[in-house]
Amino acid sequence: MSYQERYAASLMNTFGPPKLVLARGEGAHVWDTEGREYVDLLGGIAVNALGHAHPALVAAVTGQLETLGHISNFFTSGPQVELAERLLALLAAPAPGKVFFTNSGTEANEAAFKLTRRTGRTHVVVAEGAFHGRTMGALALTSKEAYRAPFEPLPGHVTFVPYGDATALTEAVTDETAAILLEPIQGEAGVNVAPDGYLAAARAAADEHGALLWLDEIQSGMGRTGAWFAHAASGVVPDIVTLAKGLGGGFPIGAVIGLGAAADLLEPGNHGTTFGGNPVACAAALAVIATIEGEELLEHVTVLGQKIRDGLAADPRVTEVRGEGLLIGLDLVSDSSAAVAAAALEAGFIVNNATPCRIRLAPPLVLTQDDAAAFLAAWPGILDAAGVS
Ligand SMILES: *Cc1c(COP(=O)(O)O)cnc(C)c1O
């Protein structure tokens, strides 16, 4: 029996049938069990920042595991403290901050959601199209009806407003609002970039009503947009930032960062985790940060991202290209993204059909010029093969 058949018999059917059975990877390339090679333009959904099997990540994880693997949060370790300090330094926020580590994005948002309750308020304002995770709390903050409906009732007192509409956002915030939660760039929605001034308007509304501004940078953070954080260019200082995905470069880790008063809202006994902040995960994240700096990947991501967006937009069957750095979304003339993703796979490229008419790319930050050029050269043929006209 094939792995696909054994998968169907032994794994819960939450994801639908897997598209490939992958065997190994190197850089931005992966190989399936038949030996077929693919250029990975999705990077494990914006996770594999250093691509696959990067020697620095392998060395950090294996070296830490050989030295000290898991210790629980009754204890701390050098990597844990160093990573917290590195993240706070990368944020370069004027306010002092503190970090809580988790193992995933949804756990980071879950912890942050609990943190907002410590204000004594419960109301949260969130954007339509937002994705914040699948656990019950994070799901309450996620807008997609199909994800929510089977699990209601979810934690309440959540108001959804159209993403990018500063007026609607400002009007939704009241003196009962604990937090405004936004992705600086919406990822799962197919890459929606916050319009200029939007985050500043959110900051102003939060300040006016004494609410927290919480930015979910789980997908957009850690260099993906060519900056350490997608919100950096706005100059806005949030109260809470949540991270995961690219943070560990493929090793599971998430983080909640509280700045200013938000740094101390969670008190002893308020929250916990067995695995979160373990030395191996923290060593992995430190290696990701050191490699992004050492290989000057932020500059690379900025330049290569622009090149890819320009190349994609050159085809008239693409109606819009959005994004920053290597978080890229494009709209097709017709609802053909599933066919386009299938045709791309057939041509040896992994892309994601985020919505019926939208393709998302979130390749490793180490994607080479050659791989990008090969994809752009193949792109018109992929659209032909998918019957997009
Ligand atoms: C992926 C994602 C999450 C959830 O992260 P998981 O690790 O899958 O739980 C939350 N927020 C955003 C913006 C994401 O892209």
UniProtKB/TrEMBL annotation:
Cofactor(s) essential for the protein: pyridoxal 5'-phosphate
Pathway participation: Amino-acid biosynthesis
Annotated GO MF terms: identical protein binding; pyridoxal phosphate binding; transaminase activity
Transferase listed as a keyword: yes
Entry keywords, A to Z: Amino-acid biosynthesis, Aminotransferase, Pyridoxal phosphate, Transferase
This protein's GO CC annotations: mitochondrion
Single GO biological process annotation from the record: L-arginine biosynthetic process
Compartment list: Mitochondrion
NCBIfam families for the chain: argD, PRK01278.1, PRK03244.1
The protein, known as: Unannotated protein
Origin species: freshwater metagenome
